[in-house]
């Protein structure tokens, strides 16, 4: 398959289905030689559409029989379709197919993982289970019966409610489930396996009882309580913030070790990557605990935003994903730390979405075409989509936003709808005119807002002139951009009455502030009120003032990031020209003040403020990237800070010790984060004392946050030999080799190392027994993480590119979704020099020319090559 033969699907071609499927009755017989699926579909012709034959979707199905109302009829099967002609307007179609889940390495459809069977149907996996109209606007009520060996697969689950179960001949048993809610096929799920279960109940605001259950591989029950608590908190939060109650009698979560993505919101039967369920203080970090909270919440929130109201077709993916990410972000902010939550969201957006939006895979949050839909589960659809929802809330306010959500559910509960429908509900509830705002759904690219400030002492007025541009937009029409601002006096005081949300709607527009005694310092784009690049000619002193005094913690942090960015980019140019970088005092002095005032500022905030912008984020700001110089410059600034602030770092390191028993609480997590930032800086001194400090933290830690932070610091040490580094890596593996998720950390800490021999290490690790090309988590930890290691992946000799090409090719047949995600490592290849580009092109062409290339990989590679 290549892009010449795979069709491009266009949003403009959407037509409603020619048939409805009102009821689905499925029977699964799971056996060693394959699974037999009998399906009975209650079909009804859509009389609003021209009469058409029934064309069902299917993939890799061995069709054993087909009847219509009990009669055999002729039908035509091709590679991906089954056609039946001349059907009555209503009928029951029965098919029997055989599938081979044990050989399903794509992890889409029904597949085996260790000792169980699991499903993943979004986006188009259901067609790998049975013949169907596999599109989200076809919604049906399902009953499912599962049959399997009782001893090997004691647990049999499907969506909805258990209605009957029993034993049958030859040691087999069966279970029948009914899901009363109409749903699209992508929300279908079944599970068969030997699993332990943690149970609880939740009573909803209106007094209904929901049975909760988390199923995991035997022996892992002690790693489930955090996820259960997260589920209960999510349920409560959605009632309080959005008035949304759980509609189910049973809400089940099943954790599986082999999973392409994070988790899946199947109705009443979520299936999760173990990474987002399992946690215990000694195996999971503070960040892991927080991610579990957010992913559990995300999938639960989908029950309303995604399941009760779903997408008309896959172009509308951001309708459910952008909105649900926004909801899980808000939940995480309420549960943990609103200030640092926003900072981390923006860090992620800049690291993943801005580069995507500037590269060959750029697309609007609602794409207009695709070849393979799985390639569009992206940072743009998810993270930028969430930013667009957040802008709606910023423009109309929290109360109107809540009213808009109520209106959305009042209008569309039980329907498959579009992004316009969502925005129309928001408009109806608020009276706000969103016509210009819709551009955010249609244009790719990150807009750039350039701001100029002018103070006129005569009139005591300050004029901000904002201009916008977007290099990637296909038309020149301006966006509606909410820009939150405030003005500060030179004393650092916020000027009363200066807090405003400007609505930039023209290409260039001025806003006047009156009654000012002197030229103020503007704080622009507070709380990151729009996903744009913002340009203003700040002086270092102005930035230092904002870092010290801005009460909007995002913009305080942002001021520090701007200071650091200028220093690193200037140093990059110096290093590239063979000169020594210079470090002006402003940033160092600001960092010293942050460390001295950490108690008032909050340790978590200070930890974020002392974390320099990442290399990938910085690279986006350069026309041509010299990855070695950039890497050297960033590290040189870290070393400079370590030298200048050694006393502060070691003093705080000692002072921030947590003495209470571990809890992933806001307070403790903040202390650990800052203490480990201090440790990281101390290791920049590259002396034996700092290595011993890290080694002793590694050895004494009673929690994974501290143990892993010490390991990560040591894994970057360049000195050879460095016995502490070698010992820590060896001990960590010895200690945790039987905890798959911790082994992933061990792989990733090596693939993301700054050390020059990282590629050799990664290559060696691909042959280590801990690595498994069939397990997505392992591939992401070792290979994809290496692709994000700027200096090492973009090695001048092309060795990183050649390695990645090999891995993409090795995975192409086995798991195209994962292979395609690896291929995305090449996205920014045109930002490098001619020598590197030649190597990258050769690697991309090698992939392109591989026989039997999946359409997932073909689409990514052909876009990268400019086809
Ligand atoms: N809808 C899932 C989520 O919230 C995403 C997902 C899980 C997915 N597994 C997938 C998407 C496999 C495509 C393929 O976030
Ligand atoms: Zn989602």
What's a quick, concise take on this entry?
This protein has 867 residues and is an alpha+beta fold.
Describe the structure in your own words.
The protein has 867 residues and is α+β, with helices and mostly antiparallel strands. 41% of the residues lie in helices and 21% in strands. The strands form 8 sheets. The protein has an 8-stranded mixed β-sheet, with no helix packed on it. A 5-stranded mixed β-sheet has the order 17-18-19-21-20, with helices on one face. A 4-stranded antiparallel β-sheet has the order 10-11-16-13, with no helix packed on it. The structure holds tryptophan and zinc ion (ZN). Zinc ion binds next to helix 2 and helix 3.
N/C terminus separation: 16 Å
Report the helical percentage.
Answer: 40-55%
Low-confidence segments? none
Instruction: Quickly name the level 1 CATH class of the domain at 1-193.
Output: Mainly Beta
Strand order of the largest sheet: 6-5-9-3-2-12-15-14
List keywords for this structure.
single chain; 867 residues; alpha+beta; Zincin-like fold; 5-stranded mixed beta sheet; 31 strands; 41% helix; globular; binds zinc ion
């Amino acid at each position: 398959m290549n892009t010449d033969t795979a069709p491009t699907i266009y949003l403009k071609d959407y037509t409603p289905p020619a048939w409805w499927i009102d009821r689905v009755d499925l029977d699964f017989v799971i056996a060693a030689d394959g699974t037999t699926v009998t399906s009975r579909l209650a079909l009804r012709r859509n009389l609003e559409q021209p009469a058409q034959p029934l064309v069902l979707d299917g993939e890799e199905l061995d069709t054993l029989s087909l009847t219509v109302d009990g009669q055999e009829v002729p039908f035509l099967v091709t590679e991906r379709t089954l056609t039946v002609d001349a059907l009555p307007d209503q009928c029951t179609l029965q098919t029997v197919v055989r599938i081979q889940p044990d050989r399903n390495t794509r992890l889409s459809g029904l597949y085996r993982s260790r000792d169980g069977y699991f499903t993943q149907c979004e986006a188009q996996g259901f067609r790998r289970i049975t013949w169907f109209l596999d599109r989200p606007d076809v919604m049906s009520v399902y009953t499912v019966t599962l049959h399997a060996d009782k001893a090997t697969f004691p647990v049999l689950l499907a969506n909805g409610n258990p209605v009957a179960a029993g034993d049958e001949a030859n040691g087999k048993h069966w279970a029948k489930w009914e899901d009363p809610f109409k749903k699209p096929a992508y929300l279908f799920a079944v599970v068969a396996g030997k699993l332990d279960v943690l149970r609880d109940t939740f009573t909803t605001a209106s007094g209904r009882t929901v049975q909760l259950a988390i199923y995991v591989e035997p022996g892992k029950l002690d790693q489930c309580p955090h996820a259960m608590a997260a589920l209960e908190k999510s349920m409560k939060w959605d009632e309080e913030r959005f008035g949304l109650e759980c509609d189910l009698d049973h809400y089940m979560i099943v954790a599986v070790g082999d999973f392409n993505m994070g988790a899946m919101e199947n109705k009443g039967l979520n299936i999760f990557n173990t990474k987002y369920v399992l946690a215990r203080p000694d195996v999971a970090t503070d960040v892991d605990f927080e991610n579990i909270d957010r992913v559990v919440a995300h999938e639960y929130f989908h029950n309303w935003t995604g399941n009760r109201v779903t997408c008309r077709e896959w172009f509308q993916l951001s309708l459910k994903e952008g909105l649900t990410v926004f909801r899980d972000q808000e939940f995480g902010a309420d549960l943990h730390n609103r200030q640092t939550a926003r900072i981390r969201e923006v860090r992620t957006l800049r690291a993943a979405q801005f580069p995507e939006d500037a590269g060959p895979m750029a697309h609007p949050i609602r794409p207009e075409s695709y070849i393979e839909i799985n390639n569009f589960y992206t940072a743009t659809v998810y993270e930028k989509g969430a930013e667009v929802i957040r802008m709606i809330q910023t423009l109309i306010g929290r109360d109107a936003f809540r009213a808009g959500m109520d209106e959305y559910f009042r209008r569309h509960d039980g329907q498959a709808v579009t992004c316009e429908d969502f925005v129309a509900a928001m408009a109806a509830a608020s009276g706000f005119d969103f016509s210009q705002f819709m551009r955010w759904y249609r244009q790719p690219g990150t807009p750039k807002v350039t701001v100029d400030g002018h103070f006129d002492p005569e009139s005591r007025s300050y004029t901000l002139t904002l201009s916008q541009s977007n290099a990637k937009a296909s038309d020149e029409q301006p966006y509606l951009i909410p820009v939150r601002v405030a003005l500060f006096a030179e004393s650092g005081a916020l000027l009363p009455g200066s807090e405003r949300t400007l609505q930039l709607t023209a290409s260039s527009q001025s806003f006047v502030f009156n009654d000012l005694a002197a030229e103020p310092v503007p704080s622009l784009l507070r709380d990151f009120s729009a996903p744009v690049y913002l340009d203003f000619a700040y002086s270092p002193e102005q930035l230092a003032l904002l870092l010290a005094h801005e009460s909007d913690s995002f913009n305080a942090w942002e001021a520090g990031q701007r200071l650091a960015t200028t220093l690193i980019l200037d140093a990059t140019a110096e290093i590239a020209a063979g000169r020594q970088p210079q470090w002006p005092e402003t940033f160092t002095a600001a960092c010293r003040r942050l460390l001295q005032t950490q108690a008032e500022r909050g340790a978590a905030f200070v930890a974020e403020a002392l974390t320099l912008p990442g290399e990938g984020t910085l690279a986006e700001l350069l026309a041509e990237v010299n990855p070695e110089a950039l890497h050297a410059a960033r590290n040189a600034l870290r070393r400079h800070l370590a030298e200048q602030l050694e006393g502060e770092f070691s003093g705080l390191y000692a002072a921030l010790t947590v003495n209470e028993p571990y809890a992933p609480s806001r307070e403790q997590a903040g202390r650990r984060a800052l203490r480990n930032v201090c440790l990281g800086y101390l290791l920049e001194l590259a002396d034996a004392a700092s290595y011993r400090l890290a080694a002793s933290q590694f050895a004494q830690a009673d929690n994974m946050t501290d143990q892993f932070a010490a390991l990560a610091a040591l894994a970057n040490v360049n000195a050879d030999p460095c016995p502490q580094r070698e010992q820590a890596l060896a001990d960590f593996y010895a200690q945790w080799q039987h905890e798959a998720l911790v082994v992933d950390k061990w792989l990733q800490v090596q693939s993301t190392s700054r050390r020059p021999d990282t590629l050799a290490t990664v290559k060696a690790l691909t042959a280590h027994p801990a690595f498994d090309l069939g397990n997505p988590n392992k591939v992401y930890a070792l290979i994809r993480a290496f692709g994000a290691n700027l200096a090492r992946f973009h090695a001048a000799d092309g060795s990183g590119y050649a390695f990645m090409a090999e891995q993409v090719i090795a995975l192409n047949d086995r798991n195209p979704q994962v292979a395609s995600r690896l291929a995305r490592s090449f996205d920014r290849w045109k930002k490098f020099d001619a020598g590197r580009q030649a190597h990258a092109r050769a690697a991309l062409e090698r992939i392109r020319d591989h026989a039997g290339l999946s359409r997932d990989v073909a689409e990514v590679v052909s876009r990268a090559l400019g086809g």
